[in-house]
Amino acid sequence: LPGSHSASVVHANGEVGISRQQERKERINILLLGIDRREIEEGPTRTDTMIVVSIDPENKTVSMLSVPRDLWVLIPDYNVHNRINTAHLLGELKGYPGGGPALAKKTVQYVLGIPIHYYVRVNFAGFAKIVDELGGITINVEQHIHDEKFPDGHYGYMTVDIPAGIQKMDGTTALQYARVRHGSSDFDRARRQQQVLMAIKDKALSLDIPLSRIPQLMRTLGDSLDTDLSLSDLNALAKLAREIRPENIHSAVIDETMTTPTKTPQGWDVLIADPERIRQLVAEIFPDPVPTPRVTDSPV
Predict the structure, then answer these.
(1) Chain-wide mean pLDDT for the chain?
(2) What pTM was computed for the model?
(3) Close Cβ partners of 91 (under 8 Å, ≥ 6 residues apart)
């Protein structure tokens, strides 16, 4: 766990820790990265999920914003245009300072116009472990899900069938629910991922897990999860989470109303952002003043 050895409010990279940010009543922005890496794979990979979680310690509110992985952006420092989910891969391959998470943070910061202070990166196995460690989660499945071409983790396919209604899910089922795409859009998938995060939060708070168990939970997850949050940061976030009421949690997705699908000259399917609509969304969900997002008008 990078940074977990330090209890200081100032990290090695010079960023102020969460305790100091709380004292200053500053918004805390964390980038959640879901890694598209199967158990049989090694090496750098793209991000399957990117969600910005923003916490306002003054007003005790949380906002979540899902960023579509096919969003066509300029990746800073390398001056190349690509899907936003390649930023992590490029950072790993090129030896970017801080690796893939650092370049992913900088890219999202560049696009949204808000600072990204921290990251949490988890692979598929780690996500399932988190849910199983909590004893499963409960999800209200709004529509019956049936996918006969869900990736089985071994470069083949399997059938996923999840009935509509209230469902108790273990880690494997929750992962399938969060990842399945067949018969729906990536925007629907992003909304399901936020729903799963809320269910995980609700279950964790209902169990009233002692803060002293956080190091043990991190050891259980092992290499499946890493972050630049220190243990003192995690403790501060856990305490703050207990003070935030459900009605003060808001979520949004950069969706089809603010993007246009197109193809690059290479034939890749990508999404071109509407800068003005994204600016409006960012200003609404992250109420602090932010500059206009910098996105490209068309593939180059």
Answers:
(1) 87
(2) 0.86
(3) 98, 99, 100, 101, 102, 103, 104
